[in-house]
Amino acid sequence: MVQSCFTFLADSDFLENDIRVKPDLDALGVLGDVGWYCIGAILFAADYELPKSVIALPGTVFNKAGVLTSCGASLIWEDGKVATFNCSFEANLTMNVTAIGTKGTFQVHDFVIPFKEDSVAFSAGIESWFNELVTGWRTMPSEHVVTTNLPQDALMVREFSGLVADIKRNGSKPEQKWPTISRKTQLVLDAVKAALERGL
């Protein structure tokens, strides 16, 4: 099971004037903006396998122009995997992703924009269980911090520049990883939009 959430409380100027809330500029609204990251995190956890079905969650909100400002969905795979996500321009800043399996749990609380530019933290629980009297946990999740000398934005530019340079200097073929990931994310996003419009 994977749960993903990316929300932020937009001010009135954003909700009236930002490109992301204008039907003729970005008709996907919150889904095409922060929902993209939620779906991407879920697909990463599912090794980019596409879900079999999508079900819209209740509570979808549209602005006066008909653009999504808050929504969520459940994704279901053939083998029984399930994921849910919520995204909103109308809730406190949150960027959580949790992956839960039979033997462990993985959590990140800043999966899109890290709390700090030079590090990111995550927790991992392995075979977690209660203590004998069920008054606490026998095995606590472990906390991990990964540090970097460059912020993630600079690392993305470095990756992109390296891919372009490899094509220009070495005659390499374009890397297929990123277009494939983007296409799969967009396919799921389109399926979520269709489910939201159907109210399913």
3D architecture notes:
It comes from Vitis vinifera (Grape). Belongs to the Gfo/Idh/MocA family. This is Putative oxidoreductase. Residues 6-106 form the GFO/IDH/MocA-like oxidoreductase domain. InterPro entries: GFO_IDH_MocA-like_dom. By secondary structure, the chain is of the alpha+beta class. The chain has one domain (2-150, 178-198): Dihydrodipicolinate Reductase, domain 2. It contains five helices and nine strands, in the order E-H-H-H-E-E-E-E-E-E-E-E-H-H. It has helices at 12-17, 29-32, 34-45, 152-170, 177-198, and strands at 2-9, 53-56, 61-62, 68-76, 82-88, 90-100, 104-108, 119-126, 142-147. Strands 1, 2, 3, 4, 5, 6, 7, 8 and 9 form a nine-stranded mixed β-sheet that branches. Strand 6 and strand 7 (104-108) form a beta hairpin. Helix 3 packs across helix 5 (177-198). It is globular and about 60 Å long.
SSE topology:
Layout: E1 2-9, H1 12-17, H2 29-32, H3 34-45, E2 53-56, E3 61-62, E4 68-76, E5 82-88, E6 90-100, E7 104-108, E8 119-126, E9 142-147, H4 152-170, H5 177-198
Parallel strand pairs: 1-5
Antiparallel strand pairs: 1-6, 2-4, 3-4, 4-5, 6-7, 7-8, 8-9
Helix pairs in contact: 3-5
